[in-house]
Every structure is written in structure tokens, then in C-alpha cells.
Amino acid sequence: MKNQKAIVETRSLAIGYRSSGTERTIASHLDLQLRPGSLVCLLGSNGAGKSTLMRTLSGLQPALTGEITIDNRPLDDLKPAELAQKLSLVLTDRIDAGNLTAREVVALGRTPYTGWLGTLTKDDHSQIAHSIEQTGITPLLDRHMHQLSDGERQKVMLARALAQDTPLILLDEPTAHLDLPNRVEMMRLLHTLARGMHKAILLSTHELDLALQTADELWLMHPDGKILAGLPEDLVLSGAFEATFARNGFSFDRTTGTFIIHQPADNAQICLEGAAKPLFWIKRALQREGLGISAHRDAPCLIKVFEAENGFEAEISFQNKQVKVSSVQALIGQMHVFFPSPHIRV
Ligand SMILES: Nc1ncnc2c1ncn2[C@@H]1O[C@H](COP(=O)(O)OP(=O)(O)OP(=O)(O)O)[C@@H](O)[C@H]1O
């Protein structure tokens, strides 16, 4: 995708707020590029400035300094009707859609193409039908927007953006109100739209795991006002991903791609070896119990793990004692016997 010409480009952009003579910069020196065919996820902690950036890129609020171009034209030079044919925006804020039905809201996506009478052509109808099909909202069409759940409303707003048929789509937390299957479905759909229809898609999200799996590129927003852009895997391997979300009490495991919640760990007393799948879950349970894992086989306790038909079997060796277990619960119970400590719950 790197050799594609960017549809959105920022140069020395600074974003933030100005009011009564004071200026608050949220992020600055931003040189970003968004290319057709790419799904980019904007990540950052609460208050990092994701919505501010989305609003600035879509022309809803002015930049403090610097330049934004869309399709090579300065954003400020684009008339609203021109911008509406290039960019669609999906916000999470509660949508005031009056008494409109979902069908009417989706049809509004065609406004940039219809005359002032708003008459829909055959092409408009077919674009609307396609958007409805892609987002699976047929059962909702005749219901009024205020009768829909937050998640249902979010899907209708995506359908409206798709009906608008722009090369660029910006979405502020599009998965915020969706359950897990719908979150996955939404990300899959956006990825398909980017790849299959060559759209440039930027979305902000707190779904770190989904973003790592589906994004072509991540924009990591740091609280210090910088944005690091790159392939998810490069940002993980360089430690930048971890640094963005570092907090006391948990860390990101680069080997498994998961966040680990730390309980106070005893000295590393247990060495684990064997089958990777059960090992992963056993390690997780031991860490939750505050038991330190050692990389050395001469640790006081050695646990050898083997895959078995119904899960796994583990052989625990501790001070000349050998115990076999075949469930994580039994293993943790045994650890409680070997390492009586306040961290271990039974
Ligand atoms: N209208 C405003 N005037 C001044 N400051 C604002 C305004 N709106 C937001 N902010 C501040 O700008 C910063 C960035 O806010 P923004 O909503 O962009 O963050 P965010 O990354 O989208 O957060 P979240 O993940 O919590 O939605 C925050 O410190 C916020 O308090």
C-alpha cells in the first residue's frame, strides 16, 4: 500500500482547542498519510485526542496550525458538497435523527448526489440497497431511529456512510456499542471495503486486539501529543505499542499479543515446559495467582505439560515429590499446598 498515493495528507498539523485567547494543543507536528485500500486504526488512551483528530481531519473543527489535503486539495478549499463526495464520517455521539426511519437515514447518504429536490435515481436506489445488504440492517429499515438500540443505530449510520459512497471513510469508535460477534463483523466489513473497494478507512477504537489483527496500519496516539504510524507488527516488535498503553499493574506480552494483568508475584519458583497450548493457559492462571515463572529448569518446582485427549496432563515435581494433575484447578490447588502464600486463593 505504501506506493499508493495518499488521499489524506497532513503536514506539520497541530490539533487542539482555542477559546477566549487561550490555546490548548492536543497533538502537533503531525505528518500523516492515509492511502486508498488501507484500513487504519487510531489508538490511544482516553483523552489522548482521537476524536479531536477525527473532527479536524473531517473539517468539523479547525486545525491550530499546519495543513490537511484531501485528494491533493487543501481541506479548507473544499466546498461542503465537494467534501461530502470525498469523505463520510460516522460519529458515536447520540444521533439526533428526529423521527426518521432507518431507511430514510440511509437514503440521506445520497444527499451529496441528488439535486435540491432530493429525488433518488436508479443508481441511488441501488447504492442504498447495497449498503443495506452489506451492513445487514434489513430488519431495522422501517423502525424509527429513536426505537433502535445503540448498536443497531451504529450499524444504520455505517450503512448511511456506505450509501454516501466516498473514497474516504472516518469512523469514531464504530464498535463502541457492539457485542463481540458484531464487533468482529464490523471490522471484517471495514477491512473488506478497504481492500475490495479500495477505500481509505480511518477508525478510532479501544479494541486493541481487533485493531492488531485487522488494521493495515496503526496510528498510536501518545499522551505527549505525538502519533506513531506503522504496521501493527512493527509497532509491537519495537515496543511502541506497549509503551502507548503502559500502566502499573499490567503489561503487553509481545510473544502472545495479549495484555497480562500482574498480581504481585512471588519469587520465580516455577519452571514450565511442554505443550504450548495448555502451557499458555496454565501460565496465565499461575500469574493470576501471583506465582513467579522461572525460565530455569533448576527452579524449585518443575511442571511438565503434555497434551491429552481431553485437555492436558501435567507432572509437577517439587522437593522429590511428584504429582500428576489434569486440570488447571487441580494444578493451582497443588501449588497452594507447595507454596502456601497469601496470594494463592483456593
Ligand atoms: N471542546 C473542547 N475544548 C477543550 N478541550 C477539549 C474539548 N473537547 C475535548 N477536549 C480535550 O481534548 C483532549 C482530547 O479529547 P478527545 O475527545 O479528542 O480524546 P479521545 O482520545 O477521543 O478520548 P476518549 O478515548 O476518551 O474518547 C482531552 O483532554 C479533552 O478533555
Automatic annotation (TrEMBL):
Transmembrane segments: none annotated. The keyword ATP-binding applies. Signal peptide: none annotated. Residues 8-248 form the ABC transporter domain. Keywords: ATP-binding, Nucleotide-binding, Translocase, Transport. One of its GO terms (molecular function) is ATP hydrolysis activity. PROSITE patterns: ABC_TRANSPORTER_2 (PS50893). The keyword Transport applies. It comes from the Bacteria. Gene3D superfamilies: P-loop containing nucleotide triphosphate hydrolases (3.40.50.300). SUPFAM superfamilies: P-loop containing nucleoside triphosphate hydrolases (SSF52540). Part of the ABC transporter complex HmuTUV involved in hemin import. Responsible for energy coupling to the transport system. This is Iron complex transport system ATP-binding protein. It comes from Dyadobacter jiangsuensis.
